[in-house]
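Give me structure tokens for this 476-residue protein.
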Amino acid sequence: MARPFTLTVGSFLSALVLGSSAFAGGTGFNPWDERVIREGIDYDALANDPEFSLEALRDKGKELFEGRFIKDEGAGRPNATQAIVPTKRRRPAGHMFLRLSGLDANSCQSCHAMPVSGGAGDFTANVFVSEGFESADFDTTDPQFSNERGTNHLMGAGLIELLAREMTADLRAQRSKAVVAARENGQAVTLQLETKGVSFGVLTAQPDGLVETSGLEGIDSDLTLRPFGQKGVFGSLRQFTVNALNQHSGMQPAERYGVAWTGTADFDGDGVDNEISIGQVSAMVAYQATLPAPGRKTPLPDIWVEAAKHGEHLFSEAGCASCHRPSLPLESLVFQDPNPFETAGTLRPSDVTTALKLDLGTLDWVKALPKDDQGRTLVPLFGDLKRHRIADAARDTLGNELLSQRFVARDVFLTAELWGVGNTAPYGHRGDLTTLHEVIDAHGGEATEARKAYTALPENDRQAILAFLKSLEIAE
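Here you go.
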């Protein structure tokens, strides 16, 4: 088994950053050069350099996340589509930017910018995504070809992924125990799956090893939580980053579009080989994983403090907190890159000899989070990392959802984490709802009773709930 190496903030020395063997510094760059990529980042060297730090890697990732890629370094995909499975275009694209099918940005920060880098996006930053796996070129917003998506913020995303990993491991362990028990007893075993207080339905294991998954709720049959995206279809920041680099900027990460998977170093045919290396993706993941979690707005006038306190109580009483759980407990703060449950097409643990591990527990904002009586970190996400049917015809929330993205039903969405909701308007999966009241009123399906409870409240109580939600902010 590969020996993990843990990077910590405390070991940072600026003199060592420049001299680290992980960086192959570029030459011939003027200070005003417009290229984003000026040096290579060697993943293996990172994992084996005891003097290198999480802070240094994060800074490199920030440069790549906020920089604006140009054609000379690979921006554009004239012969490739946005599909997650490398797919050639039917006809080469003669354009650099296309607002509909992309590419539609040359910087991650183009969309993730409100109110800070790594934040959410306005309606003008909406994207149009296909069903996901492979797609012909489309050049229209017609819903038969694409679904419209608003931009979620990435603040606290490292903790979200760590929660999903622990919950995935727990659910899979429960399945394994049921399979063993069924085989040993010669009888079917039906198990109620629950982890961190969140129920995911039932699973039945047969004595012959067959596992019946039709009773699962809010999760795929492989029992992997996928906590990113409006539909909950991305399992890791790394997968999300690899997909987005190609789709939105036409920058092809070598781990999916390189020789190992496609047989060529220049899959999109733009004349640039291996546009984004494994190490560079790791730097971008480190940046996103260390973005500080949203908190509570301060200072607030006394009238707001009192209203928010009352509103938080009413929020729970109305049933909203059954999905928007105030916090989930996290056992470990060590973030392994790549994700232990990563899938094909993205770097996996078996692809590396030494796994990179980032200790998020060394970050000041993580240290400030509350602990439970077992010493676990309480992540105040106001979510459950589970998919729910929250749309129905009566609430007109299906909108243009005519495609079933990654086999997730059109009326099913991941519970939105509400931390940061106070300053990330507009709302909804299309970013077309202007107020918190509108987005609450748009809830249907499983959320119908909670919506009705909110609607039935006196106006002052509804205002108190809104005061509470408006206090959940991303620090600027």
